Fold:
Amino acid sequence: MPFKLEPNTLIYMSTPKNLVIVESPAKAKTIEKFLGDDYKVMSSYGHIRDLKKKSFSIDVDDHFNPIYEIPDDKSQLVNDLRKAAAKAKMVWLASDEDREGEAIAWHLYEVLGLKPENTRRIVFHEITKKAILNAIAHPREIDIDRVDAQQARRVLDRIVGFELSPVLWKRLKPALSAGRVQSVAVRLIVERENEIKNFVSEPFFRVSGVFAADGRPVRASVPERIGSAAEARAFIDGCRQARFTVGDISVKPLKKSPAPPFTTSTLQQEASRKLGFNVAQTMMIAQRLYENGHITYMRTDSLNLSEEAVAAIASQITTRLGEQYVKVRKYHTSSKGAQEAHEAIRPTYIDVENLDDATPQERKLYTLIRRRAIASQMADAEIEKTTVEINGAAAPFHAIGEVIKFDGFLRVYAESHDDEPAETDDNILPRMTAGQELAYTRIEATERFTQHPPRYTEASLVKKMEDLGIGRPSTYAPTISTIQQRDYVVRGEREGSPRDFEVITLENGQVTEQTRTETTGSDKGKLIPTDIGCIVNDFLTEYFPNILDYNFTANIEEKFDDIANGNIEWAKVIGEFYDLFHPSVDSALTINGGPKFGERHLGEEPGTGQPVSVKIGRFGPVVQIGGTDSEEKPRFASLLKGQSITEITLEEALRLFEFPRVLGDFEDKEVSVAIGRFGPYVRHDGKFVSIPKDMAPAELTLEQAVELIEAKRKAETEKTIKTFDEDPELHVLNGRYGPYISYKKKNYKIPKTVENPGALTFEDALEIIKAADAAPAKPRRAARKK
Structure:
């Protein structure tokens, strides 16, 4: 049970023995700097107990009571914490303020056998001395409603995972798994991919021109699209003898306002656009910045800034830029189910411009956060937009120019957007008057094509999930990481394909037509569903429509919010879900016979008449010739990278059985090309060399294969720094992060004091291994639960 703080309890700061428990060692190290000798700070390394890993661990008949265990790798840590707590006169539970942190505090209270009279719960959203001392001066009780909300999410996700997985194993393939929020995220990506496949691109023409006004160029374009090449030719022909004059001139003042300070979601999106970080990377770096005391708590959906922070930012702006750049603003959260009332993400000390003790990535993210926070309290940018109409053709041209009259917040920060066009130089127009005659320099009609909806990036997927109310700040990054780890989604590297387009040009009174070529369909870093992801999604959509329904998933998130706010019992929410979900599981498990879900029959093999089909095999998509009911054993071939179950033809499938191909001999040993679980490869003398994706396995020559074999040998030679005759298993190698020792399938870091790893003796290497093996193992840090 949670403890309660009596109204008149006195807190003596002079208590000689205080134990502060936080969830990470980095946070512990930072906090310890702010407290005196009377305080000992220890880390729980995340959760100290959880549901059992290999069993259901939920008592459905007893109000879905979770059955927790202390993992083996945490038992020594728990013993150490118990001993420290027993010696302390006061224990301060200082885990994060969100639901996950609240649950960590509750588990510590329960497992360590703490008592209300000598236990305090403290929270803070920034790790500064002032914030820590203020938290100690104002402790509170454990919020059991938040604990229940976290417990409900954990239990519900365990139910979905444990009950759905056997269904997927039976109907699709072994080792598959499904998650509640992850499955909905995959559905978003699959549906977008289907939209793209079904999209029919239509051509049209855009007309642009360059005119001369008093010797200065004026770039203009026709706003309307032109539907066909014939219409574009007619338009350009009409411009040949046209007299172009300036028509209406419109000058409008515009104001641009700054974006609010970062939430978790917007930080992930902007770090992706501006810095190229994926969402997991952003959260890892932000976590380090927070734990080292540089920024406020990074899991938040609040846009609020404290009055103290706003005053500090305003002072910084005034000092650096002047009062005219200051405009104090209050922002309000509009995202669905906005959770705990943290501040937005901001620097703890706004006057700290550079971090001397940080990595380059940490500095980049910190600068992004700082500039965004400062810009949020700055004046609007004032822009003058001029639109000039140029008449004379079948449709008017428009020349648009913008002049920044006052840069305001743009002096510090400009927000980015997904799929925005590349930046161009400002189009500053020369002075023109109505009726002024302009001469054309060049007029061009360029064929363009309607574009399919863009594939999701990690950043745009986070935004979509937030808009739909799916997930919360703490779950976006783990959700996106999980669907990629399960191979349901990949960050694609679509190369694109050539496409011709027409250009009709009028210059010096002559009209010319030209066919040019461009690359289209290139998508790098976008999220693309795999065959397995598509088939799992189709199966779940058919048999478990509620689980994959966006509104249903968002409603569950709102129920978690209701639990956290004390408005509903968590077991009731789980019970309602289970009564709907469990019968669907039973129904799906009882389906017998028929082909595996997602299997496609392609036709028959010429000559034998054996059926040819494509399906998901144990190690991924495969083509199968023959059936399990025939006397002959079925033959299998893996699909090549880029091939899809939904699109492969019979001819392409049969071609896969041409492998392995024998190319000839090299060094008196056979060289062959084959296709394996991880793609095509060359085999020679019992060794394997991967074939690069830009080389076609069916067309690979013996000479090319030999080049690949020799290139791999050279790379392996350069990797080895030193070997030892005394023990062939001992090597000093070059790795991605520098030299290291490899011994009996284990790797050992070489100390920085060793200036020349190649000079290590056999005895030196053994000493390094012995010292590393004798060092106490650090407790593994628990991942934040989804």
